[in-house]
Write a structure and sequence with these properties.
Elements (H helix, E strand, L loop, with lengths): L14 H20 L10 H30 L8 H41 L8 H10 L1 H25 L7 H16 L9 H29 L3 H34 L4 H4 L1 H29 L4 H22 L5
Helix pairs in contact: 1-2, 1-11, 2-3, 2-6, 2-7, 2-11, 3-4, 3-5, 4-5, 5-6, 6-7, 7-8, 7-11, 8-10, 10-11
Length: 334
């Protein structure tokens, strides 16, 4: 059977920047069209936009950390590879850890900035007029604030683990940053709208599964395309394993997404009568397209047909837009 051909180009290094830009742009656009989350006071438009953009950036950074850590787990053992590929594997592992250090550092900064924007949004202030007492009250007395503080702690822990692995790769298992990053991605979701849902326990479970499955699916594929497209032996070893995981994640994201929408929307008419419903429909359409692209890529992979990676790149771009819509959903009232 013919294996998928890797055709690297000079634009490969800019793909992650494009994907992140799509996510943030989609979040900003959807946030402006959908309207801000309702509250007791109205914050300035710049603060509302900053809240949505930092949430999208935070999600992008968290999902990227999950993908990088997942790829580190999926890398084959050096003993299972020929000599040249084994050396390449060590080079890729080093790049993974270095990238994880950089992205985790950005994740910490974005979460802390997001806390400031969310507090300013809640009190109807600009960042420069936000009182330190108000910032402390919002971040310690509200579940959403405590959730973001915990997410910042998780991001810092991923950063520390990545630094240790970069210097001493044998001291920490690669699974540890993955588990911490997943927890950091899940925490803001389950302490936000899900925590105030009438069906609290069901909402928390479905949101947690939804966020974790989406992070593994989106982050894993993005990391694979960004770092392994030039290394065919490693790609051949990792891609089938990831394809199996992605299939499970697609089902989990779809089922939990429907459950979350039903819990929050209420009457079916809200799908077409509320900004939240419009975003749900947009996100649903994107997920249907993603499932179709993923199925096509898997069929091509099994048949050895070309080019698998080109379809996967389109899939990640659409994933990025979906991630931005999801970030806007968290800031939009139902």
């Amino acid at each position: 059977m013919n294996r998928p051909t890797v055709l690297p180009t000079g634009t490969d290094r800019w793909r992650p920047v494009l994907w992140a830009g799509l996510a943030v742009g989609a979040a900003a656009g959807a946030g402006l069209l959908g309207g801000p989350e309702s509250g007791p006071v109205s914050a300035p438009l710049a603060v509302q936009l900053g809240t949505t953009v930092t949430r999208a950036g935070m999600d992008v950074a968290g999902v990227t950390c999950v993908g990088l850590a997942l790829l580190a787990v999926f890398l084959p053992r050096p003993a299972a590879l020929p000599g040249g590929a084994a050396r390449t594997r060590e080079q890729v592992r080093t790049v993974l850890d270095r990238t994880l250090v950089a992205v985790a550092g950005g994740w910490v900064a974005l979460v802390l900035l997001g806390i400031a924007f969310r507090a300013a949004d809640a009190f109807g202030r600009t960042l420069n007029t936000l009182d330190s007492r108000e910032l402390i009250d919002w971040s310690t007395k509200l579940a959403a604030g405590r959730g973001l503080l915990l997410a910042a702690g998780c991001a810092a822990a991923v950063l520390g683990a990545a630094i240790v692995r970069l210097r001493h790769p044998d001291r920490l298992q690669s699974r540890l940053p993955l588990v911490i990053a997943l927890f950091g991605v899940i925490t803001p979701a389950v302490t936000g709208h899900a925590g105030s849902s009438p069906d609290h326990q069901l909402a928390v479970i479905t949101v947690a599964v939804h966020a974790a499955a989406a992070a593994l699916w989106v982050g894993g594929l993005g990391a694979l395309l960004a770092l392994l497209t030039r290394h065919r032996p490693l790609l051949d070893a990792v891609l089938p394993r990831f394809s199996q995981l992605a299939g499970v994640c697609v089902v989990a994201v779809g089922l939990t997404g429907v459950a979350n929408a039903l819990l929050r929307l209420g009457p079916w008419a809200a799908l077409v009568q509320t900004p939240y419903g419009w975003l749900v429909l947009a996100k649903t359409g994107a997920l249907v397209l993603l499932a179709g692209l993923g199925g096509l890529a898997r069929q091509r992979l099994k048949a050895g047909r070309l080019p698998v990676l080109r379809w996967a790149g389109i899939e990640v771009a659409l994933m990025s837009v979906t991630l931005g819509l999801a970030a806007a959903l968290t800031q939009t009232a139902s």
